[in-house]
Amino acid sequence: MSFLSLGLAPSLLRALDNQNYIHPYPIQKEAIPAILNRKDILGIAKTGSGKTASYVLPILMNCQGINVSKNRHINVLVLVPTRELAVQVREVFHLFGSELPKRVKSMAVYGGVSINPQMIALQGVNILVATPGRLLELVNSNAVHLSCIDTLVLDEADKMLNLGFEDEMKRILALLPTKRQNLLFSATLSDNVENIHQLFLHNPVIIKIDAEDDNIELISQSAYFVSDENKGPLLRYLIKSKDLKQVLVFTSSVYKADNVVDKLRKNGIVALAIHSKRSQNARTTALAKFKTGKISVLVATDLLSRGIDIEFLPYVINYELPRSPKDYIHRIGRTGRAESPGEAISFITPDDKDHFRVIQKKMGKWVTMIDSEAMDLI
Known about the structure:
This protein is an alpha/beta fold. The chain folds into 2 domains: 3-209, Rossmann fold (3-Layer(aba) Sandwich), CATH 3.40.50; 213-371, 3-Layer(aba) Sandwich (Rossmann fold). The chain has 15 helices and 14 strands. It has helices at residues 10-18, 26-36, 51-63, 83-96, 115-121, 132-140, 157-162, 166-175, 191-200, 212-218, 231-241, 254-266, 280-291, 325-332, 353-363; strands at 41-44, 76-79, 106-109, 127-130, 151-154, 181-186, 205-208, 219-225, 247-251, 271-274, 297-301, 315-318, 342-348, 368-371. The strands form 2 sheets. Strands 3-4-2-5-6-1-7 form a 7-stranded parallel β-sheet, sandwiched between helices. Strand 10 (271-274), helix 13 (280-291) and strand 11 form a beta-alpha-beta unit. The longest helix has 14 residues, at 83-96. The mean pLDDT is 86.
């Protein structure tokens, strides 16, 4: 199947061709025609399955046929849980909207930066990608109005509700017109997502892509038994001996992320950290440099992992294990995405053995274990 068969306009097909998109992914095959037909959608698909393009493309096309609202009255609202994801979703709108005959202005707004430039830039915006807290601040300042919303997208709904956005979501929904198209996308269908689905989706087309197991099979997993004090030397050894490029390293704390980056730099490896204590500008810059290959290693905490969306990320290293098996699968799922293979490596200390056994059991896959004691890590 090609994108041509999904009913997209020639201008969008040209944009897809320019970016070397040839065949739609499963979520796109089902979601794009339904969204073009103005159906409500409940899409369940893990991060990395192509879901952003599955709603961006038909929304851009639908925007060509609607009357533009008056200034500061946006037509499309996309709600996301993190600043990083807001920036990335807006980039996808900009990327695919470049060939459209009728200009569609999109913008991302989020906290952690000055609100005044965002208030000024909202003039003439058609599509707004926002985090809930900053959106409500802008609404309260009369910088943006939600009474003309034609389409609402709730992206990463499971994380948004788990991270405590429920009250803000209820306030935002109360400000929207009742007649609108609603598109809800989530990695999992938890009880919270089911509740909000029942709250505002009208006869939705339900799309569930069971790609998680297939994606895990695409990932080559290995684990190294290592003492806590040898984690740093082992990380440097693997990066240098395997000549690893574009490596995403996960730690469990901000302190450890900064510590790992410091040690890597002292040993001649270009690395940056991305976590909640970094400024928004520093985080955006670090992610951009990582994507373009200007730095080899990006060290992140779980809180920021949702904003790291790279289609062909080759390596993920668990410097420290996450607390839950679900988070482990989410971490390693940064690689092996969109039908592309990847490699995931975990460091297992003596204290981690029992926990890692539980992770493997829950995952339903046993990982190749390597003893690093005999390795020359110096």
